[in-house]
Amino acid sequence: MIKYIQSLNNPIQLNDITIFGICFKDNQNTEYTRIDNKVSTIADKSYLFEYNVILNAPIENKYTGFFSWKFRAKTGMNKRVLFNLLREKKYTEYDVINLCEPLPTPYLEFSENNHAGFMELFTNICTDLGLKVTEPKHTIYSNFFIAKKDTFTEYKELLIKAIELLETKYKEAAWKDSGYKALAPDKLKLVTGLDYYTMHTFILERLLSVWIENKNIKTLDLC
Question: If we measure between CA atoms, which residue out of 88, 82, 49, 94 comes closest to residue 205?
Answer without folding.
Answer: 49
